[in-house]
Design goal:
Blueprint: H1 21-35, H2 41-54, H3 61-72, H4 75-96, H5 99-109, H6 115-132, H7 135-152, H8 157-174, H9 179-187, H10 192-216, H11 243-253, H12 258-276, H13 281-284, H14 296-323, H15 326-334, H16 341-359, H17 362-380, H18 384-394, H19 406-417, H20 429-435, H21 437-452
Helix pairs in contact: 1-2, 2-14, 3-14, 4-9, 4-12, 4-14, 5-6, 5-7, 6-7, 6-8, 6-10, 7-8, 7-19, 8-10, 8-19, 8-20, 9-17, 9-18, 10-11, 10-18, 10-21, 11-12, 14-17, 16-17, 16-18, 17-18, 19-20
Length: 465
């Protein structure tokens, strides 16, 4: 990123630091809505309203308007919008397939009880999150089945919820259709397949250590008589829907465009559904009443809309910060303690985690850190793959380890909503934080990676410290 000339940046009544007013107001709003347990649409308000508020303080109103529009319409934003929409459709297809219930039934039939079921829960949740590209969405999808079943086969409730949230974090971290993967790759100008392949060296060791921890911490268990309420006759034909994530991941790893991979994944799911009868034509496109609309495709699109709007407004915020000289101010401040590759990588990770804590959204933090990560990468020749992985993996740490973060709150809520009987133990947000191991291990892996250079790649050969 080239430093902007003085006559190219937005000018403000009140001085250059006015550029930070919108993001500051947004952070204040985020704290407020977090305390109110608000839903995603409230994020639209707290990100957009400050941009409206700052307009009277900008000297060149027409330039300001163009900066906002350019942010909304940037190529990276458009890639994210289309990808999130298609990922929403593919996730809806999997939700309708009955795949999860069939897999859980097989787990019970294999007599996986106690800590064994916790391990299986982590792996299965990771697979679902890998397929859908959303950790929170996955927690909502798998908890109604995995939590009560696990409880009734003797699994520790806190470890069980921890495994569900950890599995969501793992799958989301590695998924080529995750908005965090898409954001980290596109902001650094890297292909999705290359980013996913290079991320394996971080996520797989972290997942293996997590599995070992869940294997040795916990207890044995036994089947409860109530288990029959949650499992039934397995439907092997539903296993065909595993081809959906396989097709998407394979094409991404083979460096096909993400939109192409997602499109083929959707086509695969619809063909399997129609062939097996699990999905009918009326389920794909449905007009329930005159001028009404429904169906899997529409449901997937509607489910993605809240995230899409957040992404668009965030890009407007980031473009305003960039064109107002805010990015340059931040880089100059960070340059005071960045003296080499290690401190540059530490700065990228620290900034992302800080933004994640403040915003509560790891995608927002990645988008906000993207420009600065590019600047650091250019200066110290750090590969775009490395930068993308530092950001995405950093977003998989404290985003899941602070009690007010959405995945933690949702995980605790699931233990209450889907308790198998009235007096079942409830899992608090603190229990969720202390019993999900993937984010904790990832934090250690990140620190180790920066300190030792593990996984470090350079953009080109250079003699650097």
């Amino acid at each position: 990123m080239k430093k902007k000339k003085d006559n190219e940046i937005l000018k403000f009544y009140g001085g250059k630091f006015m550029v930070f007013v919108p993001i500051f107001l947004a952070l204040v709003g985020l704290v407020y809505i977090a305390l109110q347990n608000a839903n995603i649409p409230e994020y639209w308000v707290v990100f957009l309203l400050p941009l409206i508020f700052i307009m009277p303080f900008v000297k060149d109103k027409e330039k300001f308007a163009n900066v906002i529009i350019d942010g909304f319409s940037s190529r990276v934003a458009m890639i994210l919008v289309v990808a999130v929409m298609l990922a929403g459709i593919s996730g809806t297809i999997l939700n309708e397939s009955g795949l999860i219930k069939t897999l859980v039934t097989y787990l019970v039939n294999l007599n996986l009880v106690g800590s064994k079921f916790v391990v299986a829960t982590f792996i299965l949740t990771g697979i679902v999150a890998l397929s859908t590209g959303t950790s929170v969405g996955t927690i909502f999808v798998v908890s109604p089945i995995l939590y009560p079943v696990g409880y009734l086969v003797g699994s520790n409730p806190a470890l069980l919820i921890g495994a569900i949230v950890s599995g969501g974090a793992f799958g989301d971290n590695l998924s080529p259709v995750s908005d965090t993967t898409i954001a980290s790759a596109t902001t650094q100008g890297m292909d999705i397949g290359g980013v996913v392949k290079s991320r394996l060296k971080y996520s797989i060791p972290t997942a293996l250590i997590t599995i070992l921890l869940y294997s040795f911490i916990g207890r044995g268990g036994s089947m409860s008589d109530q288990i029959s309420e949650y499992v039934g006759t397995p439907q092997p034909i539903n296993l065909l829907f595993l081809l959906v994530p396989i097709v998407i991941v394979y094409l991404c790893v083979r460096q096909h465009h993400l939109i192409e991979a997602l499109s083929y994944g959707i086509i695969t799911g619809l063909i399997i559904g129609l062939f097996t009868g699990v999905i009918t034509p009326n389920m794909i496109i449905n007009v329930p009443e005159p001028f009404g609309a429904g169906g899997i495709i529409l449901e997937g699109i509607q489910g993605s809309v809240p995230t899409i709007i957040v992404v668009l407004i965030l890009f407007a915020q980031i473009n305003f910060l960039k064109e107002g000289g805010g990015i340059d101010i931040i880089i100059n401040m960070m340059a005071r303690f960045v003296r080499g590759i290690k401190t540059a990588e530490l700065a990228i990770v620290s900034l992302l985690i800080s933004l994640n804590i403040l915003t509560g959204l790891n995608t927002a933090a990645i988008i906000g850190t993207g420009e600065i990560a590019n600047e650091m990468g250019e200066k110290y020749n750090i590969s775009g793959y490395r930068r993308a992985n530092l950001m995405d993996c950093a977003g998989t740490t404290l985003n899941y380890l602070i009690p007010y973060m959405v995945p933690v709150v949702v995980g605790s809520m699931m233990s209450s909503m889907y308790a198998p009987f009235e007096d079942a133990v409830q899992v608090s947000t603190l229990d969720v934080v202390t019993n999900q191991f993937y984010p904790w291990v990832m934090l250690v892996v990140l620190i180790f990676s920066i300190a030792t250079g593990y996984g470090r790649e350079f953009a080109f050969f250079a003699d650097v410290d």
